[in-house]
Every structure is written in C-alpha cells, then in structure tokens.
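Regression test attached.
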Amino acid sequence: MDKEKKLLSRKLAKIRGWIQAAATLLTNIHIPNLFKGKIYQGNAKTVCIPGLNCYSCPAATGACPIGAFQAVVGSSKFKFSYYITGFFILLGVTLGRFICGFLCPFGWFQDLLHKIPGKKLSTAKLKPLRYLKYVILIVFVILLPMFVTNSIGMGDPFFCKYICPQGVLEGAIPLSIGNAAIRSALGKLFSFKCMILIAVIVLSILFYRPFCKWICPLGAIYSLFNKVSLLKITVDSSKCVGCGQCSKACKMDVDVCKTPDHPECIRCGACIKACPKDAICYRFMGKSCQKNDNR
Amino acid sequence: MLKYQKTCQSILLILGVSMISYGAVRGEVATVLGKAIKLCLECVGIG
C-alpha cells in the first residue's frame, strides 16, 4: 500500500477523542451558566441533540432526545411523539451508532473513565445483558410515561426520574453548587440517583462502556438502524487475512469480520486501527472513506 | 441486496423528515421547548 496516501478512516478513528470533546462542547456551549446555576432558555432547545445530554444541564445547547420523547408521550395533549421519533429515524438512518462512538457526551465520559489505570474486565461473557437496554427503552421510556398517568393525564419521565445518571452528573451537581434553593430541595431520590451514578462510574472504570452496552435506551434505538445506516464499517474480504486482530481490538465484543453492521458496533474505529492490512474502513452512502480505494 | 438497502434508506429518510414535519405542525415542538427550558425536577432528583 502506498504510504503517501493517507487513510481517512484510520485518521478519523485516531482523532475520535478530539471529535468527542468537540461534540461535548457543542452540546454544552453555554458554559458561563454552570457558574450562575441557571438553565439556558433559548429557542435552540426545540431541537434535540444527537447524544444523551440532560437538558437540565445549565450549559446544555439543546433538548435531550430521550427526555423530550418522554415529555411528549407523558403530556396530556399527545400520546405519541412524531417529532422525536422522526428525529430518531433521521439520525439513525444517517449515522447509526456512530453517534454513540463519536458524538455522545456520556459515551465520552465513560471512555475517559475507562482510561483510568487499573484492572479491566471483559464483558464478553455478559452479552445477554445487552438486551436489558431494549427492555428499559420499551418499559421506562415508552410504556410507563404513556400509561401510568396522574388525574390530568400526565405521565412522569420514568427513565429520567429513576435511571438516568446524566441528570445528576450534568444537572443536579452543577445546579446545586450554584443555586442554594435547588441544593436544599434535593432528597432521597437524588441520593438514589447518586448511587446509580457512582455505580456507573465504578463499572465504567472496570468495564468498557457498561451504560452504553446494557442500559442506554438511546443506544438501543440507534442500534436498530446500524444495518441500514448510510455510514457503515465494511471489511474488504480480498484484503482480509483472517488474523482476528479486529475482533480482539473491539471493546464492544463484536466479531467485525462476520458482522461489521452488528447493532452493538459504535463505529469507534478500533478495528480499523488494529487491522494490519487496511481491510476495514468507514463507508458513507456506499462510498469508501479510503482515498486509495478504487471500488 | 444493495438495491434493497438503498430503498430502505430512502424510505426511512423520507419517513423521518415527514414525521418531524408532522410533529412540528401539530405542536409537539412547544411541548419539547416547555420541558427543556425549565428545570426538570425528575432529572435532577428532586421528584
């Protein structure tokens, strides 16, 4: 292979950390609000951001898609959200779980935690837990807010209320530091959610992205589109020598050669970096991201 | 297979845009904004 011709796929995988940092900054652009203890209230919050990012974070640019979906289905006016479902379909079919790998602030947070030196454990034997996130999506995000309603027909955002650790990390902690009234209102539910956050932090140090693999309903939604998304990972069988380096490098426990479009693939590019033959690359709309690819 | 995938992608893209437009027309955007600009008590753990 000509060394002068750089591989865009490999480059993209190499600068993933920087893209994640930039995406986190863009989805939390109102940084001065963190010190004021106030939430941004502009019209940009009509638009959902692609990753899991609490809209109660003082710096948040847009709305959290999972929170917004629950808000609409749990409202007395609507029982289904075409607006948010359309958003999921549009982003899912365009990027799939590339969003988890490159654009999600909570994904980046877990990536950083996993870089803390220490013992690391494999999740290969815990694969059945992957299905838990689909149960959480159906029960906590769709069914409970839709059907468990109060006297005026409004349902709670059950996932945000009882599971999501982002609300504590991005919302409660910075708001309680900057706002005494909020600090004094925090009670048992906050303590319970703090315990979930601590559990996710500890697990993220030991395992790679436990929240994304087992809990995240947003990841569950995007995973449904991985097989049809415009952005894909493809393996060139004529170049592949079957060394298995790609599967060894995959922290999402995907057998890249057999199933490059696996629902668990977050398009992180670890396989692209690991491949000694440059047989794996990103493709967008059927076009290879490799500059020297003649197909 | 490739043709089937492209058809699927096109249908889903059109469906996504149509659903966003329909949702916006029937007023879901105001519900999203109304929730997103206020402190979400459930999210931060107040209740």
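Expected vs. actual: identical. Chain A has 16 helices and three strands.
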